[in-house]
Write a structure and sequence with these properties.
This protein is α/β, with parallel strands linked by helices. The protein has eleven helices and eleven strands. It folds into two domains: about 5-140 and about 255-300, Rossmann fold (3-Layer(aba) Sandwich), CATH 3.40.50.450; about 140-250, Rossmann fold (3-Layer(aba) Sandwich). Bound molecules: adenosine-5'-diphosphate.
Length: about 325
């Protein structure tokens, strides 16, 4: 292993820059030539590759987004596209590739490794939807963004004695809604992992009114959807004024939290070590506080175990 390249792919997440910084600086420290690839797999195919020194990653640990840009690339889904990418990497004398992204990007990395390029993935996605790892980079920052928005919405909902519905990101995985709801003291959360009965929400709102509650907060994961419709229905059934807010891409931005910066630095270091150990088609993660690395296909096939305990506790605390 003489030269390693790093790219970011798929949806961006705060903390990706901290991971790039760690990969580049650890690699340089170990005597490797470090390269950056712009625009994910698309830039790889197009040869958008450049050398990175320590200064290239200066002043980025605190920044959201990714200095390497990110992209989605249809061509890379084809064997022909991947052969081109592997060829470009050989032209630049690159033996190993660090891919910072989500499950789609990892599938691409596993397939690329079959073409003689050693690959390792770092989980960068706000959704926390990768089951082999307890946390993905960006999740904690997104959660704090949600919390900040929820606190503000609570102020105005309190003043007007309204119901406030907040839609947060998470298509297949409701972790942002679940943990955001827990931390924000939401009365109800709707997540794709759990069936729900709208009557239960209405009943809680009626009961809350009689108990003297001045507002009611509902968090809805994007994967459940129907947020605006739900707001109308709540108003119709309960007679309580209801406002819906869809947070959207705000959750993808912002300065990464200390947790995400530290996680990204630790994962970046491990990713370089994995490649130096001669391994390929691996992903790094964190389990019970320890940094781990796992085979990509194994990692992507792990069943998701929903945290019922946290869900039930959240419901108890909110009733
Ligand atoms: P994420 O990595 O955040 O899950 P995507 O699913 O959009 O984001 O994947 C990012 C990129 O990874 C895609 O644009 C594509 O280039 C590549 N990719 C995704 N799925 C595959 C696949 N099944 N085979 C090969 N490449 C893939």
């Amino acid at each position: 292993m003489r030269s390693i390249a790093v790219l970011t792919s798929g949806g961006d997440a705060p903390g990706m820059n901290a991971a790039i910084r760690a990969v580049v600086r650890i690699g340089l420290e170990k005597g490797l030539k470090m390269m950056g690839v712009n625009r994910g797999y698309s830039g790889l195919i197009n040869g958008e590759i450049f050398e990175m020194n320590r200064g290239a990653v200066a002043e980025i640990i605190q920044k959201g987004g990714t200095i390497l840009k990110t992209a989605r690339c249809e061509e890379f889904r084809t064997q022909e596209g991947r052969l081109k990418a592997a060829r470009v990497l050989k032209v630049f004398g690159i033996d190993g590739l660090v891919v910072i992204g989500g499950d789609g990007s990892f599938t691409g990395a596993a397939l690329l490794s079959e073409l003689g390029i050693a690959t390792v993935g770092i989980p960068g996605t706000i959704d926390n939807d990768l089951c082999y790892t307890d946390y993905t980079i960006g999740f904690d920052t997104a959660l704090n963004t949600v919390l900040d928005a929820v606190n503000k919405l609570r102020d105005t909902a309190n003043s007007h004695e309204r119901v406030s519905i907040v839609e947060v990101m998470g298509r297949g995985c409701g972790d942002i809604a679940l943990y955001g709801g827990l931390a924000g003291g939401a009365e109800s959360i709707l997540i794709p992992e759990k069936d729900f009965d709208k009557n239960e929400i209405y009943k809680k709102i009626f009961e809350g009114k009689f108990k003297g509650k001045i507002h009611h907060l509902v968090l809805v994961a994007e994967g459940v959807g129907g947020t605006n419709e739900l707001a109308k229905e709540i108003e119709e059934v309960t007679g309580v004024e209801t406002r819906a807010t869809i947070l959207g891409h705000i959750q993808r931005g912002g300065n990464p939290t200390a947790f995400d910066r530290i996680l990204a630095s630790r994962m970046g270091e491990r990713a370089v070590d994995v490649l130096l150990e001669g391994k390929s088609s691996r992903v790094v993660g964190i389990k019970h506080g320890e940094i781990i690395d796992v085979d990509i296909k194994e990692a992507l096939n792990m069943p998701r175990i929903f945290n019922e305990k946290i869900y039930n506790m959240m419901r108890t605390l909110s009733s």
